[in-house]
Amino acid sequence: LAHVDDGRRFWGDGLDFEGAGQHARAQQAWAAAQDRLLLANTELQDLVKSNDIDMIKQVKTVLPEVSQWLVRVYLALGQMHATSGAYPEAIRHLERARKQLNDHHQALFLHGRALMESGRPADAIPLFEQLSRSHVEPGARHNLAVCFFKLGRIDEARANYLRALALDPFYGPSLLNLAALEIQTHHEDRARPFLETLIAYNPPSPH
Asked: 40, 66 in Cβ contact below 8 A?
């Protein structure tokens, strides 16, 4: 269990460094947490093969905790790499997070975003579609619409912006993007109500 404790400690160190704006040190701490937790996972998997029934029971209670900590680390590293534009590294860590806990919803969302922002909207679509089926919130539908728009699939983009707004009629990103889509496709009359709603519920700050 020493490796598990070390992993948790390095995770906490990473949060402290991130809070202090020391992103390189946060990344190093989380990488160290990942190494310790993977060592712990390997050792625990070996212990499961033993003939000690009590040991096996104890190990089986610890393994899910190690998985949860690994997901936290992978998500943190994935998000940090995505923020810095290092999309291949971000995608690698987010794929690991999804695999570790069977398509964790936050990992699905961040993985989809990283794929979309790295110029792979077609690869992001299945992830956002899966997320939209399991989590009823506008973000997944909005990002689906963005992917379809990037691919020139305008009708599907429009349909998903509308579905996002059906979930939240005041969801600003979809109101703005749908209005822009309608203007770009020469349907200014369709854009007007979305802009009016956007302005009414998101008034500009006074100067």
From this structure: yes
